Amino acid sequence: MWNSAAAVAxxxxxxxxxxxxxxxxxxxxRLVILLFLLTSALHSxxxxxxxxxxxxxxxxxxxxxxxxxxxxxxxENLTFPxxxxxxxxTICRALxxxxxxxxxxxxxSGNLVLLHPLAPPFSAYNYLLEPYxxxxxxxxxxxxxxxxxxxxxxxxxxxxxxxxxTSPGTFTDYLxxxxxxxxxxxxxxxxxTTTTSWYVDASGLKDHTLFAWADHAGQQEGQxxxxxxxxxxxxxxxxxxxxxxxxYGVTGFSPNFTFVSVDKIETIAKHFILGYEIATQRGLFLAxxxxxxxxxxxxxxxxxxxxxxxxxxxxxxxxxxxxxxASANDVELENATSPQPTFSWFQGFVNTVNxxxxxxxxxxxxxxxxxxxxxxxxxPQQCGLTGWTQKDIxxxxxxxxxxxxxxxxxxxxQQISLYNDLQSGRSESFIEGVLTQxxxxxxxxxxxxxxxxxxxxxxxxxxxxxxxxxxxxxxxxLRWSTDLKWNQ
Length: 488
Fold this sequence. Notes:
The chain is α/β, with parallel strands linked by helices. It has 2 domains: 5-187, Immunoglobulin-like; 194-486, Alpha-Beta Barrel (TIM Barrel), CATH 3.20.20. It is built from 9 helices and 25 strands. An 8-stranded parallel β-sheet has the order 23-22-21-20-16-15-25-24. A 5-stranded antiparallel β-sheet has the order 3-6-12-9-10, with no helix packed on it. A 4-stranded mixed β-sheet has the order 5-14-13-8, with no helix packed on it. Strand 21 (323-330), helix 5 and strand 22 (362-364) form a beta-alpha-beta unit. The chain starts with a helix and ends with a strand. 45% of the residues are buried.
């Protein structure tokens, strides 16, 4: 019945249109094409595109269907999850012919004909003739067939629809099988330009040398970004919070811990900004970073950090620079036996910022060590023996550009996002990008298992978020990609 109106009209007395099957009331058999839906096991991140129930016609006449005159054949809209260039998303579908719309058992036969094929980046392939199995569809087993094909009663034709983008963008097309139309859409996100962020180690450096480095690093970042026309995201990471002789600052990094005051950190940031502005005025998101390790992870230190950034923000505004300033914190779950000191630091920062009337905020560029990589629910799960839970992470006053050093870290963050969405009842895209440390690992090896390049890390996080229909929208929020490097 799918082949053409001429082929079936002499026998059954109906003519085929794109969306309607018209038939005579004298016809004993009522024929309808029934589309079965199946969540394909071919690609785990397609739950969003395959959540509909199997299509069948209700006994009552729905709007748009003429009583006694026609049966509507629904066209189907299929939206693939956001799929990175170089990856493939697939959907499994099947068609058969039946006489009872409300309880189809594929009890009739007909010809299945390809009327409109798909063009890249979409494709339909692997057509398999298989026995009807109570609504179960298998796109991996069956007898391979080519269209057009006669579908006997008691059988169905299963097939795979794929989206394989080779360039960024949004794409649409439709597949017409015997007047049943699948309207497809898919998008491939643009991998953001990877910037260089910095572990700023002041050990052994005089102030003028440190400031000169910041000038050069800022100018270099500006030169790299100028052709792209978008803003750069850069973290200047200064290390562990510290207090020396009642002066707040950081103590740097091992092995030569060197104290750097908040005043000097502010001056280093100014030099970086000035260097960037010399090269381009495209815009800069600059996050000044510390971490949550040591005895000075306190509310008072958070207040001092906020005060430094408030002063820096005023300087930026005075000069009219296109710089968006933020705080950053490398929150490592194993740095403390509980999240309470970290909470105190963040609360001290937020209270000070709120009191100033500025719009400064925090980025967490840390880890989710030992957090679960599967089975998230609306109840927060423990992150191993760290003393943290998934809720503790989402409760931080922060946006997230987390460390994605391997596939496990990508899954940990996807599960945190899923917990947050399930708990709140809405999709909240608070992960804004990925952070890696490949350049730093080359400088100071070894980094066993934590040396992902930025492109691989970004794609792993995209794949992880696409693992659930709930977190998949978060892919569109991924706008930053940055890789850490040592300044010396």
